């Protein structure tokens, strides 16, 4: 039997008889860039992948019973054995050489994309995900461009298009963009960082163009009542519904916020009533700042101001892909039955890491992804970026933030502010959507007024998780939306 025809499950080599991982073999596989054979159980597609890429993404990947199976070929096995003897002076595993490669539908040696959707993917992202996951990179970009063109046609003469048709276009294009980005990132993790960034560059550019068009449409009709009804009818995947609703509501809220800041006296009223209504809340967040030094400008670095278009669009992209690392097992709001905190934390880490290392999305979008459950440092908060701040404070023990919220990146990166504006907005919208979600599994969906009451009690008064000023503005936004929907 030829060496190339022999394979052995990777787990048999890496997991010892006592159930523990043979870390020295795992290290050698990574150091020597030894490829492993990945086989899709359903489609029988196969691909050789460097062990290090898969291991860095998830060091237990070969132990999971999912769609993919992982093998060492005879050639890889011999290389690992040889390097182990040279480096460690020993080799503890003997391969059963009679083991043959499993049967494949395709007999050629072509290396194909890892693009098949699992049953769990379809359950939480909808039936469309199966089709999208099998698209080539070029086809994904082409679909995004078609969606952008569809929105641009509406923008050319929006008054001539029925509101229901605009709503349907926004839901369809947002849903497509979320699914395409998730599928593309699922594939990108199997590539080295530089290669992945090249592969996803067209995706990044086309997504940004599509988002720019949809954000303009949403901003022109902040309280479009057809949007959510259309979404519920057209999307059958719970996570994709959530991602789409959060994006649409997020853009609408940012547009509402811009209008409030630019065209009303609301901010001046907040400034006048700050000491009596808000100061005590923020003093607990910045206890080293004297009470007399607290005002609205201390909370919002540079003062509350409108969001310029370029920044608006970068944040919109972040809202769209904020849950890109989400898996079927994730529930949105802590306190649910079967809540698994580690799985929930992992979705933020995976999303942040994937966007940062595998794409050229703007830093603003990745930071939103990694920081949208920070909760002002509350113990219930989590996120990949939180670890960065913890390390920064260790390296700079005398650093003390002077502001609560920043619109720019630099003050959050060097700890001059403790929160990032779009992430604080997304925290509010994320929680609100999770508790009003009509597809909630374990509890009945709350009505808007019930959700706002619960959030104020649990996330503002009992725990300082979400921002109180932004929450007050959000409450006005929801109340106005509800008032108009009843007309």
| Total separate domains | 2
Q: What's the pLDDT, averaged over the residues?
A: 80
User: What would you say the CATH architecture of the largest domain is?
Assistant: Orthogonal Bundle
Name of the top-level CATH class of the largest domain: Mainly Alpha
Report low-confidence residues grouped into runs of 5 or more: 97-117, 327-339
> What pattern of helices and strands is seen along the backbone?
EHHEEHEHHHHHHHHHHHHHHHHEHEHHH
Spatial extent as radius of gyration? 25 Å
Which strands sit side by side, in order, in the main sheet? 1-4-2-3
Instruction: Summarize the biggest pleated sheet.
Output: 4 strands, antiparallel
**Coarse shape:** globular
Strand elements, count: 6
Q: Output the structural class.
A: mainly alpha
Calculate the terminal CA-CA distance, rounded to whole Å: 77 Å
Residues in β-strands, percent: 5-15%
- Counting DSSP H or I runs of 4 or more residues, the number of helices is 23
Helix content: 55-70%
Instruction: Find the CATH topology of the largest domain.
Output: Hypothetical protein af1432
Describe this structure in words.
The strands form two sheets. The chain has a four-stranded antiparallel sheet. Strands 5-6 form a two-stranded parallel ribbon. It is globular, with a radius of gyration of 25 Å. A hairpin with a 5-residue loop joins strand 2 and strand 3. It is built from 23 helices and six strands. The chain has 487 residues and is mainly alpha-helical. The chain has two domains: 110 residues, no CATH class; 364 residues, Hypothetical protein af1432 (Orthogonal Bundle). The chain starts with 6 loop residues before the first strand and ends with a helix. Helix 2 crosses helix 3, helix 8 runs antiparallel to helix 9 and helix 10 packs antiparallel against helix 11. About 7% of the residues have low confidence. The longest helix is centred in the middle third of the chain and has 28 residues.
